[in-house]
Design a protein that fits this description.
This protein has 15 helices and 14 strands. By secondary structure, it is an alpha/beta fold. The chain has 2 domains: 2-201, Rossmann fold; 299-434, Rossmann fold. Helix 12 (288-311) packs across helix 13. It binds nicotinamide-adenine-dinucleotide.
């Protein structure tokens, strides 16, 4: 199959290299530097196995990247994977999807042979695919030649290739049977048995299910974090023990019950906000649970900093090291990372903040650039600091252990924002605080 992917970001590029195992993929992106990198076999994002898959696909001429200025060629399937960021009021910015779909329809004669399916993979509110794609297809009178799908993506940054190769299930929101079969075949040719669990539903159900999925996972995290606040005040109780025991109930599952600095990244914050905005503004439905999820999550950075303040009430002029900037290990993505809010708060308290991350070497820190010194050298980050706050659970930090992390510090206080050392022996030389235990 010839597949045109619009938007070569985390989703577009990850899907592209996986689909290129069996199909011919053309990636279109407005970012010329990204396009050039991909064609040079250099991945613009950090993902396990990405470099090898990309190099292999480019060498076999199964993938190429182009800008919109170049010819698209005949395609069997178009997948729109552009960003859908939050607007300031939490609603979803659909301008990229709008431009991308307009571009596809403007060039439909170039793309279309006998039959082509146009699909949206970006996370969009219910009704978007119908409005931006199906209605245009109907207006053009192309119902026999163009199928329409919404195919939500569930890959996680940090394990994007593994997730795209082995999905729990494939959801296809489809305008009709023929369109759904094209997607089914696309995945089955690449993934074989791993594509057996295909659920075909309406466009709107598929659009909504992506938001509900992320909102439910965010709910589990915020719920565990609220319970962590409770266990901190219950002498003898420990959040991990409680949630592990609760998770063994087969109706519940222990996954996504990790308490810590809160969820971040490009999806959970914006998708919870997007669902709230859709429900409240478009439907007039109050979202009490969803708003509580946001509130609990927004309090996490301050709770981590409070642990530090309980031990060191004045941070004025003191060096504090922040370990981890990416919103989770395995990625260099810092979008909505709790580390950024923690740096902000430490700076407000007068600390001299140093930050380290194994993958984030430079970043658009915005205002934060003035608030923290970023270094690639972990020793330099820790050297002479009064305290250290572990925010992202990178293996490098876990391997060093408590003694290894604190030996260069002037002080001995380590705040474990991810509970990675709760089972470790705490050396006498280390002052250790974490969330969720008294
Ligand atoms: N990142 C994830 O883990 C993830 C997981 C599941 C779903 N999603 C959803 O997938 C969508 C894409 O997310 P992402 O993280 O890949 O975004 P991203 O920001 O990494 O990539 C989007 C890409 O689209 C390009 N682009 C924008 N407008 C374009 C246009 N008109 N033509 C061509 N290219 C254009 C941008 O230059 C960028 O490279 C979002 O809706 C997101 O919510 C993301």
């Amino acid at each position: 199959m010839n597949v045109l992917i619009i938007g070569a970001g985390y989703v577009g590029l990850s899907m592209g290299v996986v689909l290129a195992k069996s199909h011919v993929v053309t990636l279109v992106d407005i970012d010329e530097s990204k396009v050039a990198m991909i064609n040079r076999k250099e991945s613009p994002i950090h993902e396990r196995d990405m470099d090898d898959l990309l190099a292999d696909a480019v060498s076999r001429n199964k993938i190429r990247a182009i800008t919109p200025a170049e010819p698209f060629g005949r395609q069997n399937l178009v997948l729109i994977c552009v960003g859908t960021p939050s607007m300031e009021d939490g609603s979803v910015d659909l301008s990229y999807v709008n431009k991308a779909t307009d571009m596809v329809f403007e060039r439909i004669e170039e793309i279309l042979d006998d039959y082509c399916v146009i699909g949206i993979k970006s996370t969009v509110p219910p009704g978007t695919t119908r409005k931006f794609v199906s209605e245009k297809v109907a207006r053009m009178g192309y119902m026999d030649k163009l199928g329409v799908v919404f195919n939500p993506e569930f890959l996680r940054e940090g394990s994007a290739i593994a997730d795209a190769t082995n999905p729990d299930r494939i959801i296809i929101g489809a305008s009709d049977y023929k369109a759904s079969q094209v997607l089914k075949k696309l995945y089955q040719e690449v993934l074989g048995d791993a594509a057996n669990n295909v659920i075909v539903i309406s466009l709107e159900s598929a659009e909504l299910c992506k938001y509900v999925n992320n909102a439910f996972l965010a709910t589990k995290i915020s719920f565990a974090n609220e319970i962590a606040n409770i266990t901190e005040r219950v002498s003898g109780a420990d959040i991990d023990e409680v949630m592990r025991a609760v998770g063994e109930d087969s109706r519940i599952s222990p996954k996504f019950f990790g308490s810590g600095a809160g969820y971040g990244g490009s999806c959970f914050p914006k998708d919870v906000a997007g669902l709230i905005s859709f429900a409240e503004k478009n439907l007039g439905i109050a979202t009490h649970v969803l708003r509580a999820i946001q509130l609990v999550n927004s309090e996490r950075p301050a709770r981590i900093v409070n642990l530090l303040l309980e031990e060191l009430p004045s941070l004025k002029g003191k060096k504090v090291s922040v370990l981890g900037l990416a919103f989770k290990p395995g990625t260099d993505d810092t979008r909505e990372s709790p580390a950024l809010k923690i740096i902000d708060l430490l700076h407000e308290h007068g600390a001299e903040v140093w930050a380290h991350d194994p993958l984030v070497h430079e970043m658009d820190l915005g205002n934060l650039a003035k608030k923290a010194q970023l270094t690639d050298n972990l020793e330099e980050c820790l050297n002479n600091s009064a305290a250290c706050v572990l925010v992202t659970e990178w293996e490098e930090y876990i391997q060093r252990g408590l003694a290894g992390l604190t030996e260069l510090m002037q002080g001995n206080l380590l705040i474990d924002g991810r509970r990675v050392f709760t089972d470790a022996e705490i050396p006498e030389s280390v002052s250790y605080r974490t969330i969720g235990q008294s």
